[in-house]
Amino acid sequence: MKQIEPKQTQLLHIAKSQCKLSDVEYRDLLAGHSKDKKTSSKDLTYSEADAVLNYFVKTLGFKIRTRGCNPLFLKDCNPLFSRPARARGPLPGNVTALPSPDQLKLIDALGAQVAWKYADGFQRWLAKYVKTDKIRTSAQASRCIEGLKGMLKNSKE
Prior knowledge:
- By secondary structure, the chain is an all-alpha fold.
- The chain folds into two domains: 6-58, no CATH class; 93-156, no CATH class.
- The chain has helices at residues 6-18, 23-32, 46-58, 74-77, 79-82, 85-88, 101-113, 121-130, 138-156.
- It starts with 5 loop residues before the first helix and ends with a helix.
């Protein structure tokens, strides 16, 4: 018989607290779903713990919340996104970091605050100072953000 896994024990205790079961009710529930009337989660087998968890989910309405992948928030999906770039270290030479959506939003917001002399002033500035017609990398986005911040600072002085 396979023993209970630590994650199952953790889930059982979380389910107990979420379903607001008293200690006596919880132990009665464990005894009802185990062969030898076990009253401790550590004594359960893998399959018995699975049966108790299924009971919590199907009957008592326990919802297992994962910290898993939400496609709208890529930071939850990939641990590389959750750490700052400095913590990851430099990228290999053949890898290019794309600009983040936050960087692009900040560039749009800063660009809208600058009073351009021409309708295509931002595009002209981008071509002259960032040396590109479109922001393609994270490094370009950083240079652009810092340049726009400097322009705003100088225009307010």
